[in-house]
Amino acid sequence: MSSYKGELPGLYWDADKEKYFGIQSRAAARGTDLKYSVENIRKEDKKDRLQKADSARIDKIRKQRVVRRHASALLRTGVERELGSKRTSFYLRNLLPQACMSQVSAKPSQVIARPDASIIRYFDRDPGSKTLYVVQGDNTVKARRIHTNIGPPLPTQNTTEANDFDSSTLNTHSFLPWDDVARTTSTVSSLNCLPVTGALATTTYGSDRPPVVYFNDPERDGPFIGQQFTPPNCTTIWGAAARPTSFSPSPRLANSVAATQTEHLAVAASTRVLLFTHAPTGTWDFRVVVHTVKSDILALDWISRNTIIFGSRDGKIRLHDTRSGGSSHIFTHPYPISKLKRADDDTRLICSGLQDSLFLYDIRSPRLSHHPSASRDYRASNHDYSNPNYFTSQGTNKRKRLDRDTSKSWSQPVLSFTHQNEADLELDIDVHPRLGLLAAAQDTDSGSAIRVSNIWTGKTVKTIKSNWRVLSARKRVGNIRSLKFMEKDGEEDGVDLWACWAGGVSKFAW
After folding, report:
1. Residues with Cβ within 8 Å of residue 128, at least 6 apart in sequence
2. Are residues 56 and 105 in the same domain?
3. Share of the chain above pLDDT 90, in %
4. Are 304 and 407 members of one domain?
5. Quick one: pLDDT at residue 391?
6. Residue 449 domain flag
7. pLDDT band at 116 (very low <50, low <70, confident <90, very high)
8. What is the spatial distance between Cα 373 and Cα 404, in angstroms, rounded to a whole number?
9. Most confident of 40-54, 207-221, 256-270
């Protein structure tokens, strides 16, 4: 038996008495309760080993843990722990978005005038060639190339002419003629210029003709040449989203075999999600990645390289990983979902819905707004979501007061943005993650056309008023179905806000 002061066989060092004692054998200690018996010594050794191991574990945890100087709420502590090295300063999250939007003109600068006998419903721009693609009317897709310095010079601006815009209508997109690209069999539901191949993806709602997904490359193949898909068992196509090139692959897959597809497009086809892929040979193919859900899928977007998020008419928000099958229900929005956008991180998303609802959700905290176990303590007067005027300042007697069974199943958002959209599924939103800006189109009857908010604080930093009430009846047409942050031509960090405006396309420049 070892001792603590020295290795003396058969002796035990008592730290309290500071002397050695002989260890009694098992036979000598039989029937008696001797303090220095073999059994008691073994128990003491075991107790000492456990105490040393526990002390070492506590010391290790204390060295690895950061102790907050001022303790705050448990929820905030957990969120800041998840942020880690991505924690930003007060200036970046509070002052920078407001400073950026303070220099934006509230008057639109016209890019494309309203065409004769039609309006522009959707638009998108090729990031490489800067060619602008638009949907005129219901089913006509056209393109207009940008004016280059090689061609004839643009006419000088007539600054004395009075019009509704702060600059002349002559610009780099208004000099060249229109090129016909395609004509669909029903109303167009989305228009996407794909970032990798530069191809154009057009989807339709369908009517007496079935809905289709149409791919073409006007830059290489010319007009009316493309590949068309008619998804089976599909009543309508609500929208599509292309995977951005800014998403980097997982670090664990950096040395794996390269993917054979060069482009990915997710399509909301009725109650299913289709994934279209583009092969290096130039052909497109698709597969059903999410089979039938209980309600129509109205919006979808990519939040990471392999993850698609989509929302349905019943307010449910689901996740799908392209490397696996099926989907996962993570959030429940109070009203039908119109648009979904990725925020500044792959765990945060912006959800726009009807009844003036515009929320920011965090996947790391999918909490319910009212816990089911607390149903006995439920009081409608203490629950904000039970107020029929919670999402809008405009009261209405037709809106039904929400009860316990509906409100307790909603997900609690991280932020709520000021928004005005009663019943329009086509009003668009867009997010600029680097500047922390969220641009949302508003209802035409609200007096505001576009509201820009801070995605980190939820505060409104810019409101662009609509002068459609004082315009002529010819210009007072159309909702803002396309709203995009566009990079400025020839500037590395310049950004403009483009929108469908008065039947044409306008921009709000810095």
Report:
1. 198
2. no
3. 43
4. yes
5. 45
6. yes
7. confident
8. 12
9. 207-221
d(CA 266, CA 269): 9
Q: Measure the CA angle with vertex 207, ends 206 and 209; round to 5°.
A: 75
Are 55 and 117 in the same domain? no
In-domain check, residue 3: yes
Partner residues linked to 461 by β-bridges: none
Q: Please, are residues 454 and 100 in contact by the beta-carbon 8 Å criterion?
A: no
The encoded tokens of residue 425 equal 């599924």
Are 345 and 451 in the same domain? yes
Say what the pLDDT of residue 381 is: 40
The least confident of 32-41, 115-124, 481-490 is 32-41
Are both 219 and 364 inside the same structural domain? Answer: yes
If you search the block for the tokens 């934006």, which residue do you land on? 104
Q: Where are the beta strands (DSSP E) in 237-347?
A: 237-242, 263-269, 272-278, 284-290, 297-302, 307-312, 316-321, 328-332, 337-342
How buried is 307 (Cβ within 10 angstroms: 0-12 exposed, 13-18 middle, 19+ buried)?
A: middle
Domain assignment of residue 164, yes or no:
yes
pTM for this one? 0.73
Among 39-43, 366-370, 411-415, the least confident range: 366-370
Q: Look at residue 311 and tell me whether its pLDDT is greater than 80.
A: yes
- Residue 502 falls in which region: left (phi positive, over 0), alpha (psi -120 to 50) or beta: left
- Same domain for 238 and 359: yes
Among 63, 90, 107, residue at a domain's last position: 63
Query: What is the predicted pLDDT for the residue at 150?
Result: 64
Q: How far apart are the first and last CA of the chain?
A: 83
Helices (H), 190-279: 218-221
Q: How far is CA 16 from the centre of its chain?
A: 66
The answer to whether 314 and 295 are in contact (CB under 8 A) is yes
Give 92-97 contacts, CB < 8 A, sequence gap 24+.
92/436, 93/436, 93/454, 93/456, 93/457, 94/454, 94/456, 94/457, 96/435, 96/436, 97/435, 97/436, 97/437, 97/454, 97/455, 97/456, 97/461
Is residue 131 domain-shared with residue 232, that is, in the same domain? yes
Predicted confidence (pLDDT) at residue 169 exceeds the cutoff of 50: yes
Q: What confidence score (pLDDT) does residue 77 get?
A: 64
Domain carrying residue 38: 1-63
H or E element that contains 143: strand 140-144
Residue 288: per-residue pLDDT: 94
By C-alpha distance, which of 368, 300, 373 is closest to 337?
Answer: 300
Number of domains in the chain: 2
| Residue 296, in any domain of the structure | yes
Would you say 135 and 120 are in contact if contact means Cβ atoms under 8 Å apart?
yes
* 360 plus 440 within the same structural domain: yes
pLDDT band, very low/low/confident/very high, at 81 (cuts 50, 70, 90): low
Please compute the mean of the pLDDT values over residues 287-306 and round it to a whole number: 93
- Please list, in sequence order, all residues whose beta carbon lies within 8 angstroms of the beta carbon of residue 463, skipping any fewer than 6 positions away: 448, 450, 451, 452
